[in-house]
Amino acid sequence: MAAIEDLASEFARLPGIGRKTALRLTYYLLKRPPDEIRRLARALDAVADRIRACSQCGNLTESDPCVYCSSPRRDPSILCVVEEASDIAAIERTGEYNGLYHVLAGRLSPLEGIGPAELNVASLMARLGNGSRVREVILATNPSVEGEATAVYLQKLIQPLGIRVTRLARGLPVGGDLEYADGVTIAQALAGRREM
Amino acid sequence: MAAIEDLASEFARLPGIGRKTALRLTYYLLKRPPDEIRRLARALDAVADRIRACSQCGNLTESDPCVYCSSPRRDPSILCVVEEASDIAAIERTGEYNGLYHVLAGRLSPLEGIGPAELNVASLMARLGNGSRVREVILATNPSVEGEATAVYLQKLIQPLGIRVTRLARGLPVGGDLEYADGVTIAQALAGRREM
User: Fold this and answer.
1) Closest alpha carbon within chain A to B48
2) Chain A residues with beta carbon closer than 8 angstroms to that of B57
3) pLDDT tens digit string along B78-107?
4) pTM strictly above 0.90
5) How much is the ipTM here?
6) Could you tell me which of B132, B80, B128 has the C-alpha nearest to residue B104?
């Protein structure tokens, strides 16, 4: 049963998958045709073999530079800075952004020993240096304590270059309910209130 | 991004894993070293290549016959009939059973078109036929409507052979709370009450 145990152990390494779920997934696959199991294995191999960080923006990609960096239809004067490559997908889903991206691959976290040197900060500053066409940097790090600290840190680096620095608006989520919103969010929504 | 999309789609096929969890797992793996991704792929391949049903009991195994059927230390006079190979692991964890197993690979379910012919019933009856050393069959199908119907069906087939047929006890789960037990379980616990 070593193969079954091995697979369950590998599944159990994944985030949010405990021992019981790992076994359930394993036994589910055992009841599927072997070719279906191999299809998942091939998809994993493809990712392991072909996905790498874009040398320009740090996005995860099969082609280098990535689709955004190599697209002639994206606006090179706006750069959106995100924590993770997965955040790009979330922004792209809105269909409202047409600039370029830069992936930090994390956030400042002194407690975890993550400083600017552990993030793609040097490559970001290189893109904003002499001859850069970037006129605005949108700091789209998460609205968390660490994301906020990262944004403030980057703002201090970027603003002296004469580039506009913006941050995603905070406030009530669309479809949310004032009654259930937390106080900090309501405070942010108040502070950021706009004329109708 | 085809490789990333493919992997997310494959994950999303697994039970209990929706689109969002599939993406989360995919992006998690993308941040791990490629060798770690390949280790999961190899574990899947090993299962696809090596795991098959035991020709005697239907258990999922790398070696045929399986560890239980081939063990000289298991008692061949008791046979425990379960719905799925994964149920064997649950019973083995108790350390209280030392007989052999038979895996039906399902349960009777007329609504899903699953009759005796779709289950490992013929092979079960063959094991109980002339010259069989089995003296007791424990019907350990699930305590559900379908598991119950399957047990009753098998009882009618097996009892005429002069073999003792038993069923796992039903009652209050250990550590459970009478207040929160459902009525059917309490009724079963009452009907099955024992002298102290």
Assistant:
1) A34
2) none
3) 999 999 998 998 888 888 899 999 999 999
4) no
5) 0.73
6) B80
